[in-house]
Amino acid sequence: MTTATDTIDAHDEHHDHKMTGIKRWLYTTNHKDIGTLYLWFSFIMLLTGGAMAMVIRAELFQPGLQIIEPDFFNQMTTVHGLIMVFGAIMPAFTGLANWMLPMMIGAPDMALPRLNNWSFWILPFAFGILLSSLFMEGGGPNFGWTFYAPLSTTYSNGSTAFFVFAVHIMGISSIMGAINIVVTIMNLRAPGMTYMKMPLFVWTFFITAYLLIAVMPVLAGTVTMVLTDTYFGTDFFNAAGGGDPVMFQHIFWFFGHPEVYIMILPAFGIVSTIIPAFARKQLFGYSSMVYATSSIAFLSFIVWAHHMFTTGMPLAGELFFMYCTMLIAVPTGVKVFNWVATMWKGSMTFETPMLFSIAFVILFTIGGFSGLMLAMTPVDFQYHDTYFVVAHFHYVLVTGSLFSIYAAAYYWLPKWTGHMYSEKLGRFHFWCSLISVNLLFFPMHFLGLAGMPRRIPDYALQFADFNKWVSIGGFAFGLSQLIFLVLVIKCIRGGEKAPAKPWDGAEGLEWEVPSPAPYHTFSTPPEIK
Amino acid sequence: MTTETEKEYESYYVPDASHWPIVGAVALFLIAIGAGNYVANLDTGEGIGGWVLLAGIALIIYMVFGWFSNVIDESMEGKYSAQMDNSFRQGMSWFIFSEVMFFAAFFGALLYARVFAVPWLGGEGNNLETFQVLWPEFQAAWPLTSTPDGTTTEAMGWNGLPLYNTILLMTSSVTAHFAHVALEQNKRGALKVWLGLTVLLGLAFLTLQVEEYIHAYSAMGLTLASGIYGNTFFMLTGFHGMHVTLGTIMLIVMFFRVLKGHFTPENHFAFQAASWYWHFVDVVWVLLFLFVYIL
Q1: How many Å lie between the alpha carbon of A382 and the closest alpha carbon of chain B?
Q2: Checking CA distances to A199, which of A9, A69, A150, B117 falls within 20 to 30 Å?
Q3: SS3 state at A497
Q4: What ipTM does this complex have?
């Protein structure tokens, strides 16, 4: 160490050692502050999108139209989807990346800290625009989160432009966040931390960030074409002008399918961190996990049209996309096998993070199996646009992505707050969530197989009983999430002091700094052996 | 500039809290609601959306000035290390990659329309019935000068203005490279000449493109709304033109920074980034010339 660098460090320390009040959060360049902002924002969005799901389930509690108009029902399903995808799951992962990546690789901060701040602060504005469009004349977006043309072009209401620009801002945020993650991992690893020594958590975020940089611009292109088709007289998605509405679906799902993996690969990383810690064993098959994640990411670019088997495609296309989709089961199977093998003969304990992780492995696998069923073109003709699809993607996104985010939050809460959370309350949250979420989504499989279509506010009488139970499960699941809110607030305000490493089986650099983690960590990088 | 590994890692510069990002966030917000309001009222011309949009653009220009001048000051004070420089370089390359993917969406639309949508409308494959029922008069061809609903237009040839523009832009890529070489060899005079020439070539390209658009709209009846051919033509060349504009502005800024004596043979990230960006718009143009004009 030289004196020169010491003075610079001391100088910086003095300057940005926390501004006070609102300015600290608005101007911050600190990865931990920005991570906290992302996490709180995503939780608020989870509750907002969740409230919309409650409206949907209230309307579907009984057949017939009781509470809301069909057009408002459509707005609820649309904005629920957009908020959960872009506002809850993705920012939560970015928040975890912000908090944990620099600590895990021994970096002083994210590589581009000011850009990091910008990536976050444009998000609340984007969602402000999206939500305010619900109150505009004619209502908010009502064409489904997939905004298929011509619903979003010829037949859309007046607020489509606001939807388009809100999505643009969300995309800019994701791209900048992803660039920051890639550069941080490539450039700021502590000396000695080679790529194959990185924690799997870091690997999965690395690969996810590539996917984001590759496909978010395509989404921007798609919404731009929707904008010009709606307002500037172009015919990209209109056959009368030589375009094609099916082309919309191709371009959208070229973004949309990698997007699905953007929301699950980080979950794989989280679970691969937590299961070894509570099984007190090394992760089984680390390098096969890295290769499996990479091959899933690659395959995600050549399977998009399995969302469109019934839309009209040459037979060769249907076959190609069917086989490629089924191929994804192979690397995913490798992962599930590795998680189970990690637990095999481990000295397992079942703290809340582990409970959520085990539930993830089982329930995500159920979602994977129903995905495999949907991958088969001939049977997809029956399942397409039914509640079976809704059941499938809620199993992978709620009991998959969301459960992994909860697991991560419980696992690192002691590091973030310096206090242990209440294990009793955590388990209560887990069991309430587990039971209600299955009551909520499992019957949807049968509803779908029996032919109940998705995105419709009314249904035939024979679906009444199951829908009643689904709605009850939905309300219970929604309420259960408030337990988590209480738990987090209690944990921030006090509780048992957390040691630097509260989990005896945990590994990684983040456990070598005190709890709560100091405002600046690793101003000089640790040596990795 | 540090060379020992140990020191390099120790001096990674983490900037102080900054108010520029939140200014930028407000600017993007104003741009989005301004543009949204403007576009939604396009037919009536009511509302103040246009003014909000302009305010947003002004604010974002202000932010870019403030933010970049902070970065330049920090760089001139020697706070940055080689590692920091690397972060900037990698960040810029991934940004350019994301831009490539943005263009890929529109190239994808162009290719899909040409290879699938238009021939299918003409009855190719198993679409004969669709063709006979919907638009039996329709003739599938590319460029699609007559759409199924009867909009007609002329196709833009590649000879003439587009060819001149190709030559201009490709030459400017070469001059940009010479400017970079001159900077690395610390030949400041040659640097100024080559960089100035690149800027002039960029401006000439933009002028000719405006000329081409005026010709298309007034003499050929080729507009943004002329069916899928006009759509892809104007969206691709238009977004490319916007990128050339941005690239030219970047090069002009670099030119003035060179005049002020900025950049050294070893340390010139901003110049490098602008030049990468310029090569990127050049490559996109070559693809455009091939797929939009010639083929």
Answers
A1: 23
A2: A9
A3: strand
A4: 0.94
Contact across the interface for B105 and A215, Cβ inside 8 Å: no
B-chain residues near A246 (CB < 8 A): 117
- Say whether pLDDT at A8 is over 60: no
Query: What angle is formed at CA B270 by the lines to CA B269 and CA B272, rounded to 5 degrees?
Result: 65
- Assess contact for A220 and B102: CB atoms under 8 A: yes
Q: Answer whether residue B29 shows pLDDT above 80.
A: yes
pLDDT tens digit sequence for A64-91: 999 999 999 999 999 999 999 999 999 9
Q: Are A439 and A378 in contact (CB under 8 A)?
A: no
In this predicted structure, the answer to whether residue B10 has a pLDDT above a threshold of 70 is: no
Instruction: From A362, A477, A351, A476, select the one nearest A426 (Cα to Cα).
Output: A351
- Of A266, A379, A265, nearest to A331 by C-alpha is A265
Is A429 an annotated catalytic residue?
no
| Residue A384 designated active-site | no
Nearest to B102 among A117, A118, A220 (CB): A220
**Which segment of A264-273, A307-316, A352-361 scores lowest on mean pLDDT?**
A307-316
Between chains, do B148 and A254 touch, taking CB under 8 Å as contact?
A: no
Find where tokens 């100088």 sit.
Answer: A11
Residues of chain A in contact with residue B116, where contact means CB-CB under 8 angstroms, are: 244, 247
CA B242 to chain centroid, in Å, comes to: 5
The single residue of A77, A156, A184, A332 carrying the catalytic annotation is A332
The answer to whether B34 and B55 are in contact (CB under 8 A) is: yes
pLDDT of res. B110: 97
Reply yes or no on whether A520 is catalytic: no
Residue B29's nearest CA partner among A438, A514, A124, A457 is: A124
Cα torsion angle, B202, B204, B208, B210, sign? positive
Report the b/e string of A387-417 with b at 16+ CB within 10 A.
bbbbbbbbbbbbbbbbbbbbbbbbbbbbbbb
Cβ proximity of A163 and B32 under 8 Å: no
CB contact under 8 A, B36 and A112: no
Task: Sort out which chain A residues have CB atoms less than 8 A from B15's CB and list them.
Answer: 29, 113-114
DSSP state of A376: S
A77-89 burial, b at 16+ Cβ within 10 Å, e below that, comes to bbbbbbbbbbbbb
Q: pLDDT digit string (tens) for B119-163?
A: 999 999 889 998 999 999 999 999 999 999 999 999 999 988 999
Cα within 13 Å of Cα(B87), Cβ side: 25
Beta carbons within 10 angstroms of residue B219's beta carbon: 9
**Which pTM value belongs to this model?**
0.94
More confident residue, A410 or A521: A410
Cis peptide before A499 (omega within 30 of 0): no
The closest of A517, A237, A263, A496 to A394, measured between CA atoms, is A263
A69 is catalytic: no
What DSSP line would sit under A212-278, residue for residue?
Answer: HHHHHHHHHHHHHHHHHHHHS---TT-GGGT--HHHHHHHHHHHHHHHHHHTTHHHHHHHHHHHHHH
Question: For residue range A405-444, what is the model confidence (pLDDT) as tens digits?
Answer: 999 999 999 999 999 999 999 999 999 999 999 999 999 9
Of A216, A120, A220, nearest to A165 (Cα)? A220
